[in-house]
Amino acid sequence: YLILFPVESNINSLYLQLKCLDVVAHNFLILGFGLAILIWGADRFVAQSSIIAKRIGVSDLIIGLTLVAFGTSAPEIFIGISGIFNESAALSLGTVIGSNISNIALIFGIACFSLRKQITDSLINLLPFVISVVWLGIALFNGKINHIEAIVFIGILGLFLFTLFKSNDLNEEN
User: Fold this and answer.
1) Dihedral, 173, 61, 110, 39 alpha carbons, nearest 10
2) What pTM did the predictor assign?
3) Which residues contact 125 (CB under 8 A, 6 or more apart)?
4) N or C: where does the chain have the smaller number of CB atoms within 10 Å of the terminal CB?
5) Per-residue b/e over 81-95, b at no fewer than 16 CB within 10 Å?
């Protein structure tokens, strides 16, 4: 900070610059602490949810596509809710779109790059994904997402969970 803003000869100015540096350092410390708690909490949530799901006989695919997905998306959900209460819809929308771009491009890309075997799952599981992408384009056409469009998104989530459990039942029968 002191490199970017040269110190003036005035003692009061030096005091103010050091005070700003102290505030910035304090904010970074709080940010680091919050990130550490977030990572620890997400790890514990996913681990314990997986243990419970395995005990009741849920397959690894379902655990990964539901519990882990909800657990890792919890920060985005809370930021979205906070954005709504603070009347900052752009923050909520940006978080959702940015998170999904990151998840699809980065995580899915790395997983596909490192995958060594061919996946034989049904493509019907991708149907809700395609529908949600198309619906997002339609919903954002006017620049706003209203209540009806939001309910459709929740319905697409229900369709995703339904097709997921249905395809898991078919795989268990085979």
Assistant:
1) 180
2) 0.55
3) 160, 163, 164, 167
4) C
5) eebeeeeeeeebbeb
